[in-house]
Design a protein that fits this description.
Strand content of chain B: under 5%
Order of helices and strands of chain A: HHE
Radius of gyration of chain B: 33 Å
Largest sheet of chain A: none
Shape of chain B: elongated
Helix content of chain A: 40-55%
Structural class of chain B: mainly alpha
Oligomer: heterodimer
Largest interface: A-B, 55 and 62 residues
Number of strands of chain A: 1
Strand order of the largest sheet of chain B: 1-2
């Protein structure tokens, strides 16, 4: 795709891999703080919620499982884009 | 009541007028009309009105109570936002169809009996299919036909249920129905189709992404929310809804992760969010029902913002495939920013609307001690952040730079997204006005330390998981593809089976024809042998021999005569 070179072709802050690393580090840092936040309250719900950092661990595991299972599903479910093209229904 | 006319009617007839207005005037009119109708809706007094008698059935064409009012306001708001977003981008037909569609949803929310509901229910189907066909491509035409069959089918089930119910109870009133009898079951399935229950859901992810950039915004706002309203009205506390809701919340997110069409990702994400609402209706407590309808309200807004952002991307780039996008933040920073607000809201980050409304549903489920549904909905909560909260903005606006340098979205699209985003943050920060709109008094505090910490933890660690998977190249790349879903059964399996059966019938027919032809040929051959030129029956004889045989016959006759005398 060709388009006028302005203004997008300047190098943005995000184009620098160093800055992306900074963002990732910041994410890890605030995640750690949120993890420690488990100390701030007593749970009113299910017993499992009393496990320190349950939500963090569960969120991480859930997302990894989600992506891995979805990736595996591709082997069965994925078809070329034109799969339904000739269908009349 | 100051007026006995269902305000949906004003929007429908007013909408038809939009088809004949000149383009300049039309855009402003399409925004002004729903604003005016909002005024009428806000002025409605509570109670039943618009009574009509039709074939001996008493109809209540206008019913205003807390639940109906909430959805009426929601639909008006959706119409205003979507019309502003579409402005002059939508065609004449789209402008009229979208207002008729919105008016039908509004009318249905305010209908007090099942027949009135049915009429608006089917009108919504017709108005909305025009928005799909408006794209004008062969896939959109076919998807529209499939969509229409399903939607009209839902209406037919609703009508059948309503008639049965009238026969049994003598009333067509639309109140709590329950699953006690056949009529209830038929109506339940009719609602379930529009609510995209599992296996009945494909019309949504099939048709919505095939509409125009602006049409999908309209579509996302009305049909499914109307179904949520109908379920909340007719089937509160129906236990099976908890499990249906959990299934709806969980299974589409797997598809959302691997889907390449970003509007289809949002379609799957819509089903996921509807799952929370359906589960909330199934729990049936005051808190969970309030939560379900509050979430419908919030979802309409943030889903509209997300569909608008994707619509703007489609308008500017001509594609909405994740594999062809990326890096758009460089030239569409405002759209990107507003999209992120929508994404934060659907993910239920603290200070955004989803945090408040989904929190109510989750709190109700914890309160009822439903451990397994809770655990699965928590999984779905993490998943929604993953596929809608991160995937949508990330692959459209960031990720690998596609090199596309397109213009920022037009002003009216930005304005509509900005109003939606402001509402997302407004509700998130100050939920009291939303609480006041809910059908029952709210005894819920969204901002407790526990809720804020647990939700933040869940989301941040989901983000960590995404970051880890993406940076270690474990995340599945966006690939140009389609993924088989349940619609494969009726788009491929069934046609193939029918074609197979038709083939067998055709072969049998051929064989029979062949056999009959053989028999016929033999018969003709036989006839030919006896009657043909050489046949014994067709042999020519001379006049002399004929005279001879006549003489013989006469002589024979003479002898016989003489003998008998």
């Amino acid at each position: 795709m060709t388009a006028p070179p302005t203004p997008g072709d300047r190098r943005d802050w995000l184009d620098d891999a160093k800055n992306v690393r900074t963002i990732v580090r910041a994410l890890i840092a605030i995640s750690a703080i949120a993890f420690l936040g488990s100390a701030l309250y007593a749970s009113h719900g299910f017993a499992i919620e009393d496990v320190f950092g349950f939500y963090g661990v569960y969120g991480f595991v859930a997302c990894v499982a989600l992506v891995m299972i979805a990736k595996a599903m591709r082997r069965v479910l994925m078809r070329p884009e034109s799969y339904y093209d000739d269908d009349r229904y | 009541m100051t007026t006995a006319i269902n305000p949906g009617v004003w929007l429908i007839f007013g909408g038809l007028l939009a088809a004949i207005l000149p383009s300049r005037l039309r855009a402003a009119y399409c925004v002004a009309l729903p604003i005016a109708v909002t005024g009428i809706v806000l002025g409605l007094e509570g109670g039943l009105a618009g009574r009509l008698s039709f074939l001996g059935v008493e109809l209540i064409t206008l019913r205003v109570d807390g639940l109906a009012r909430l959805f009426a306001i929601l639909f008006c708001l959706a119409a205003v936002l979507a019309a502003l977003f579409a402005w002059t981008v939508q065609s004449r037909i789209e402008a009229a169809a979208s207002l008729v569609y919105a008016g039908s949803a509004l009318g249905a929310a305010l209908a007090g009996d099942l027949l009135t509901l049915f009429v608006f229910w089917e009108m919504a189907a017709i108005g909305s299919v025009l928005l799909i066909w408006a794209r004008g491509t062969p896939p959109s035409y076919h998807a529209g036909v499939r969509y229409l069959i399903v939607q009209v089918g839902s209406g037919v089930l609703l009508l059948a249920g309503a008639v049965l119910r009238f026969q049994e109870t003598g009333s067509a009133a639309f109140d709590v129905i329950g699953l006690g009898d056949t009529a209830g079951a038929l109506i339940f399935i009719a609602f379930g189709i529009k609510a995209a229950f599992p296996l009945l859901h494909n019309w949504l992810v099939d048709a919505y992404p095939e509409s125009t950039p602006t049409g999908t915004v309209w579509l996302s706002a009305f049909t499914t929310k109307l179904a949520i309203y109908a379920l909340a009205r007719g089937f509160p506390g129906t236990e099976i809804l908890i499990w249906i809701g959990v299934a709806m919340a969980c299974f589409p997110i797997f598809y959302a992760v691997i889907e390449n069409d970003l509007r289809r990702v949002l379609g799957y994400s819509t089903i996921n969010q509807l799952g929370f609402m359906v589960a909330g209706i199934g729990v049936g407590t005051t808190l969970s029902l309030n939560g379900a309808v509050a979430h419908a309200f919030c979802d309409m807004i943030f889903k509209a913002v997300l569909f608008m952002a994707m619509g703007a991307v489609l308008l500017r780039t001509g594609t909405i495939k994740g594999s062809e996008l990326g890096g758009l933040y460089k030239t569409m920073p405002k759209t990107a920013g507003l999209c992120i607000i929508g994404a934060a809201s659907i993910s239920a980050f603290p200070l955004f609307s989803g945090f408040v409304s989904k929190g109510m549903i989750m709190a109700a489920i914890v309160h009822e001690g439903l451990f397994v549904p809770w655990l699965l909905l928590l999984f779905a909560s993490a998943g929604v952040f993953h596929h809608a909260g991160i995937k949508i903005p990330f692959f459209a606006f960031f990720a690998h730079d596609s090199g596309r340098r397109v213009e920022e979205a037009p002003w009216h699209m930005l304005a509509a997204m900005a109003i939606g985003a402001a509402l997302c943050v407004g509700i998130g920060v100050h939920p009291a006005p939303l609480y006041a709109l809910l059908p029952d008094a709210v005894d819920y505090v969204a901002y407790t330390t526990e809720h804020v910490v647990t939700q933040t933890q869940l989301l941040l660690f989901s983000a960590l998981a995404f970051t880890w998977l993406y940076r270690t190249h474990r995340y599945p790349p966006e690939l140009p593809s389609v993924n088989l879903d349940f619609d494969w059964t009726y788009r491929r399996l069934l046609p193939t089976a029918v074609a197979g059966i038709a083939g067998a019938i055709s072969r049998l027919h051929g064989a029979l024809r062949q056999g009959m032809r053989g028999l016929l040929a033999q018969l003709l051959h036989l006839v030919h042998r006896h009657h043909g030129p050489e046949g014994v029956m067709a042999r020519t004889v001379s006049a002399g021999s004929m005279a001879f045989w006549v003489v013989v016959a006469l002589a024979g006759y003479l002898i016989a005569y003489e003998v008998s005398r």
